[in-house]
Write a structure and sequence with these properties.
The complex is a heterodimer of chains A (about 450) and B (about 525). By secondary structure, chain A is α/β, with parallel strands linked by helices. Helices cover about 45% and strands about 15% of the residues of chain A. In chain A, helix 10 packs antiparallel against helix 11 and helix 10 packs antiparallel against helix 17. The longest helix of chain A is centred in the middle third of the chain and has 26 residues. Chain B has about 525 residues and is of the alpha/beta class. In chain B, the strands form 4 sheets. Chain B has a 5-stranded parallel sheet, with helices on both faces. A 4-stranded parallel sheet of chain B has the order 3-2-4-5, with helices on both faces. A 3-stranded parallel sheet of chain B has the order 7-6-8, with helices on both faces. In chain B, helix 1 packs across helix 7 and helix 19 packs across helix 21. The longest helix of chain B has 17 residues. Chain B is globular. The chains are: A alpha/beta (about 450), B alpha/beta (about 525). The interface between A and B is large, with 69 and 62 residues.
Chain lengths: ~450, ~525
């Protein structure tokens, strides 16, 4: 194991740091939000939320402006009569699904997604999925999972979705590597290409673009997670006999190298071959990170809980970008999965799990971090109080994994600081159009070949 | 159960949030599961508010359900009072909390807070956002506003402006200015900018101006009954409606309706010859009833468009909407299903859509220009500049924003003359929009809509046994794209009525002459 991790581990990491847990208002999305990227990733899937107008409104508010054109998700809105038992909700659901599938013959996978109201009224979507599978297989495979806020926080929706797919994945006895977690296509292609160059025999991904491309799983499957929020999927794959390769997450040069090395060691890839394959992209990643790190170095960062990416990202920002973490908040701390990242994150920051948003805001205001990573509901109010913020959701919606995105990831954090610097810079004197009587501005005139005449000859 | 892809209105508690966020010194304690806090970002992102909405969510989770969610609510309410020290508190449940029946109103009363606590009963599974706002405002007014002595000079209250409203910020300013021209001051504007203390002063006004019936009518009726304040029925959107509004106010107060109209430009902009090309352009209108009714009047009488279809998504106002449609010789489309609206727009093939952000998107898919006239709102509906819809400046803004999406004047003629031009063809769009002119591809352009539900539908109309001769088909393509669908349908209808099965160029032009207006 020691070979798998970078040599310069901190004397004490955060694995054993006492975790601050507070109960109160949680300013987080529910698991339904994951539908926004999952429906783009799985191109023959439809996500049918069984819920309320609030669910529909959430999806629209969180996603509406971005992907108005092609909804492959919708909400079956529960009405008064569904609740009063006057209408058999299951009959209604079957009818809506039949209509939907008739209109969309391209749909091969249908996810019935449970919501807070459907959970509270105990609408049995597992049984409904079973029944609908009977009606619509083999053309359509029907799954169910819960994206409700009472059970899932934001990215846990993807975890629940992938975990729901695992039991029905085909069985295999082959030794295969399975990459688990939805990645942007460009990043997935890069990862697969790197693994191929390393000489890893067969690599499959979950989720897959199409139902027909779903991976098989069995006792010789080994899997690596690319997202830290996949605890239930991890457990479901383990139940199928697959084995997890623990590793830090592939963010930044260091994280990507450690992740690849863990996989390479599993497959007995020789060290010199590993170095040969990774040398060039590592160098590129380091160069790109260095550009953004000049802005980030020496600055402090405070994470509000959002996506569970917080621990690996704090590790990246502190070790590769020279930042200091004040607090790293995460909705859930899955030590079994982010343990390697916790080992690398030097002790010091408060590690908090869950949230009382008002108390956490008090801490952030007191600490006045240089950069606050938080949700969209908090960002503008904190900016108005003079803090610089980074929208956490962008980290989930932007290609940030692996070497070629390491610089982009650092730049995402650097941009708010650079922007603030631009907007708050002392005003640059601008020569008046007439050129006479303006404050001296040597730099503006230079390079135009002649001081005052340059501004005099400018556009009126 | 009803399958919904996009909704025009949010849930009722979002309506209550629009009231709470518009006000000052009011706090909303909302019994809601984790995740419902998404609604905060509507205000902080879309409206760019620099404060969090004054809402405390209990954010209960599954593990709380077996235990004591009622105590969770009480703790949240108590802590919200201690932290925010509001003048009054509204309490209620979101859709999920409604199901667990904790009675937030009763729980909050039991806390004995030293401020008015106003319980909200908003049926989430029957009603929607506008009702939520209207009802919340009513309950606040009912609890806090009492008859008080009138102000010495003539004053009024402005009712109905909320957070996340379509141009409410600027409408309030514009109507305040308009009334000032008559010498009438605003006593209280509410909910927008009012505190609970201000609400208690509302009875001092001589009358009420109902800016937005959707979110203020229940309060207006209540104040009419209990404080004896009449309220205005005309919504001052458009030149004619603004003048009618001034006369209505004059009738209520006895103050002259003659005001300075110096800044009003719409009538001359519309009369100037460059606007000739607007004559009879076919428009379809959809949105909330108030904005659509007003916009239809402007379109028909102040700009000279032809209204070919109109409707609203809020059933509460179906009756006035139907009456207004009848005045235009049309049947109103009352629906909250945007698929129906899309189908209707496709059928009517208008040259301009005046709608919401949803219709703007429908227009994008169908290649029809659209101007936005109503909520639901989008970040674009909160411009940095002053941009009211109401009053005389509102009329100016409306002229600009409706005309801008259209291909203008001589450019339209050039398109007609040189349709076959490889770069200056109609699908390239209006030159002032800065879109990249794409070289015409000879095949019929394919709508880039990917795997949409409407993939299977196409624009062949009721073709059936009808066959288009190749040269007639080519001629059809020379017709500008925004009327091509209409031309195709008219021709096919004309042919079918006459038993013609093969459509030639002659059939096309005979149909054109037949349907000429």
């Amino acid at each position: 194991m020691s070979l798998d991790l970078p040599a310069n581990l901190p004397e004490r990491g955060c694995r054993d740091t006492p975790v601050l847990k507070q109960r109160g208002q949680r300013e987080v999305f529910c698991g339904l939000t994951g539908i926004i990227w999952l429906h783009r990733k799985m191109q023959d899937a439809f996500f049918l939320v069984v819920g309320s107008r609030t669910c529909a409104h959430l999806l629209q508010a969180a996603a509406g402006v971005m992907i108005f054109a092609e909804p492959r998700f919708g909400t079956a809105i529960l009405e008064e009569k569904d609740l009063a038992g006057l209408a058999d909700a299951n009959v209604e659901l079957d009818r809506e699904v039949a209509r939907l599938l008739a209109r969309r013959p391209d749909i091969r996978q249908l996810f019935l997604v449970g919501s807070c109201p459907s959970e509270v009224i105990k609408l049995d979507l597992a049984r409904a999925a079973e029944r609908l599978n009977g009606q619509h297989s083999p053309h359509v495979r029907v799954y169910n999972y819960s994206g409700s806020g009472i059970e899932t926080t934001f990215t846990q929706g993807e975890d629940a979705c992938l975990a729901a797919m695992v039991p029905s994945l085909p069985a295999t006895d082959k030794r295969e590597l399975l990459i688990v977690g939805a990645l942007p296509d460009v990043v997935e292609d890069q990862a697969l290409s790197l693994l191929k160059s390393l000489g890893i025999p067969v690599t499959r991904t979950l989720p897959a673009h199409r139902h027909s491309e779903l991976p098989a799983v069995g006792p010789h499957t080994v899997f690596a997670l690319v997202q830290p929020f996949l605890g239930d999927t991890h457990a479901a794959l383990t139940r199928r006999g697959a084995r997890h390769i623990p590793a830090p997450f592939p963010f930044g040069e260091e994280g990507t190298t450690a992740w690849l090395r863990a996989v390479a060691n599993e497959f007995g890839i020789p060290r010199d071959h590993f170095e040969a394959v990774t040398a060039a992209p590592r160098a590129r990643a380091l160069k790109a990170i260095a550009a953004a790190a000049t802005t980030l170095s020496g600055k402090s960062v405070f994470f509000f809980p959002d996506s569970q990416l917080e621990i690996p990202l704090a590790r990246f920002l502190t070790r590769e970008c020279g930042m200091t973490a004040i607090e790293v908040g995460t909705p859930y701390l899955q030590t079994g999965i982010v343990g390697p990242d916790l080992d690398m994150l030097a002790e010091g920051p408060t590690i908090s799990e869950g949230q009382d948003v008002d108390l956490q805001l008090d801490r952030a205001r007191a600490a006045r971090p240089d950069l606050t990573v938080c949700g969209l509901g908090l960002a503008n109010p904190l900016e108005a109080e003079g803090l610089s913020t980074k929208w956490a959701i962008e980290l989930v919606f932007t290609p940030v994994h692996f070497y070629e995105q390491a610089g982009d990831l650092a730049a995402l954090f650097a941009r708010p600081l650079r922007r603030k610097a631009i907007l708050h810079a002392p005003p640059t004197p601008i020569p008046s159009p007439q050129g006479g009587g303006a404050a001296p501005s040597p730099r503006v005139g230079e390079g135009w070949g002649g001081g005052a005449s340059a501004s005099a000859g400018g556009q009126p | 159960m009803k399958l919904t892809l996009w909704t025009y209105e949010g849930p009722t508690h979002v309506g209550a949030m629009r009231v709470a966020t518009a006000m000052k010194g009011l706090h909303y304690v909302l019994h809601a599961p984790q995740g419902d806090t998404y609604a905060d970002l509507l205000f902080t992102m879309i409206e760019r508010r620099n404060h969090r909405p004054p809402v405390t969510y209990t954010t209960f989770q599954a593990r709380d359900l077996g235990g004591d969610t009622a105590n969770l609510f009480k703790d949240a309410a108590r802590e919200a009072y201690a932290r925010f020290k509001p003048q009054a508190m509204i309490v209620g449940a979101s859709c999920t909390a409604e199901l667990i029946q904790d009675d937030p109103g009763g729980l909050a009363q039991a806390l004995g807070l030293p401020i008015p606590v106003i319980p909200l009963d908003l049926p989430s599974y029957q009603r929607k956002e506008n009702f939520g706002a209207d009802e919340t405002f009513l309950q606040i007014v009912r609890t806090l506003a009492k008859p008080v002595a009138r102000t010495d000079s003539i004053t009024c209250n402005l009712l109905g402006a909320t957070g996340l409203g379509f141009r409410h910020r600027d409408d309030v300013t514009e109507v305040t200015r308009l009334l000032a021209l008559m010498g009438i001051a605003v006593n209280v504007c509410a909910p927008f900018g009012a505190s609970p203390d201000d609400i208690t002063r509302m009875g001092a006004a001589h009358f009420n101006v109902l800016l937005y019936p959707e979110t203020g009518e229940a309060a207006a009726r209540y104040l009419e009954k209990t404080c004896g304040q009449p309220f205005t029925k005309v919504v001052p959107i458009g030149v004619g409606a603004t003048r009618d509004f001034l006369h209505e106010v004059s009738g209520l107060t006895g103050v002259s309706a003659k005001v300075d109209e110096t800044g009003l430009r719409l009538p001359w902009w519309s009369a100037s010859v460059d606007s000739t090309y607007l004559t009879g352009k076919r428009v379809f209108l959809f949105g909330d009833a108030t904005h659509v009714i007003a916009a239809a009047r402007i379109a028909a009488t102040e700009i000279g468009f032809e209204v070919v279809g109109l409707g609203c998504y809020n059933r509460e106002y179906a009756r006035p909407m139907r009456a207004a449609a009848k005045a235009h010789g049309l049947e109103a489309l009352i629906t909250d299903d945007y698929l129906e609206v899309e189908a209707e727009i496709e059928r009517l093939a208008p040259e301009l859509i005046l709608g919401t952000q949803m219709e703007r998107h429908i227009g994008k898919r169908l290649g029809i220009p659209c101007a936005v006239i109503s909520a639901p709102v989008h970040v674009q509906d909160f411009p940095a500049r002053y941009s009211p819809q109401m009053g005389f400046e509102g009329a100016n803004v409306i002229f600009d924003s409706w005309i801008h999406p259209l291909v203008m004047g001589l450019e339209e003629h050039l398109l007609t003359m040189f349709r076959e031009d490889f770069e200056f063809h109609d699908a390239a769009g209006a030159s002032h929009h800065g879109g990249k002119a794409t070289t015409r591809i000879e095949a019929e352009p394919v709508e880039a809509s990917g795997g949409d539900i409407f993939e299977q539908k196409n624009d062949t109309g009721a073709a059936g046994d009808l066959a288009w001769a190749p040269d007639a088909e080519r001629e059809l393509k020379k017709i500008p794209f925004f009327v091509r669908g209409k031309a195709r349908r008219n021709t096919e209808k004309y042919a079918a009525e006459r038993g013609v099965t093969a459509i030639s160029i002659d059939t096309l032009y005979e149909a054109k002459a037949h349907y000429a207006r």
